[in-house]
Amino acid sequence: MNSSDLLAPEIKKELVEFAQSLVRTKSLSGQEEAVIKLIEKKMIALGYDEVTIDSMGNILGRIGSGEKSILFDSHVDTVEVKDESKWDFPPFSGDIVDGRLHGRGSVDMKSAVAASIYAGAIAKKMGFTSGKTVYVSCTVFEEDCDGENLKHLFKELDLKPGYVVICEPSDNVITLGHKGKAQVSIKTHGVSAHGSAPEKGVNAIYEMAEIIQRVDKANLELMRKGEMRGTLVMSRISSVSASLNAVPSECEVYLDRRIIPGETEDDIRREMDQLIKDKNASWEVGTLHRKSWTGMEITYEPFHLAWKIDLSHELSKACIAAYQENFGSEPAQYDFWDFSTNAVTPVSMGIPTIGFGPGEYKLAHMRNESCKVDQILDACSFYARVIEKI
User: Which single residue of 2, 20, 28, 104 could bond 94 by disulfide (Cβ 3.0 to 4.6 Å)?
Assistant: First the structure.
């Protein structure tokens, strides 16, 4: 490829150094203040027309004020590092070795943050933003609450962009959609009794035992459905009892159900009803409660359907044209993420949405996370060309 057409050598150097500084700035979910302030300073220095931090702590940069609008979104929070001593390079060093940027967040997804921020400035300089409004959002708490950040940002700033590009890692492959997810809590209900007289109680754990088997069976059935398939995983189990000498009165499991295109909310609800059929049990969406770095309380309902944009859509066509000009060839393939992203919000609002970002997503959350520097530069010039083509 050729990012050289749009990115002068000094810009490439600045962009890579900014990506390094982002990796060096720790930003666990709920602790993103330092990285948001770093981004604010950079957007202002690059000549963004307006830079806003909302009450949740998300930041939005704007360039231009034309009728046609596009938003590039990246989240800035990362997962924890619990095995720092085992990394080949310190996870917050931002070291560049053998052409790769190393460290936590290099893939998920600070390389995309840097690329999208610089792309807006480059597009402005090249005149690509004439008659358009370009937004670059850098959002918080995505790891636990994907989409809640953009939902809040759009509502607070009364914003509905015409198009959205989700900059999650895709190995610089145009990505047309992703699976949905439902995170569900199932509870079984028993009757407490002393451990010396279990016959006087009803054990909620025993009541859950058959449900556990049903979950396993349901997942095996999903796995037989072909190349595109949903999954069902039981990720947590706990119980409530008066003491270690008592029959448990309640048992709870947490399920992660990944949803494929064509599956509906009613399909998932019927599936959950079948899992608890004839048992003294109930289920509900596993609502999460978190607090942002600004102190705002976040309530997240993790139930999102899958989505996919058509290749014939004007946003897809603009991305294909940008790809061809940027890489000198038609896309050899397209991708479909098996994880969920902030796209759930714009998609639910009817906003055309597509994905593209630097980094191999299978390296996200892993030890020795790293991203090719060339991919960061290529993603930046691709984003700028998308602004030109839209």
Answer: 20
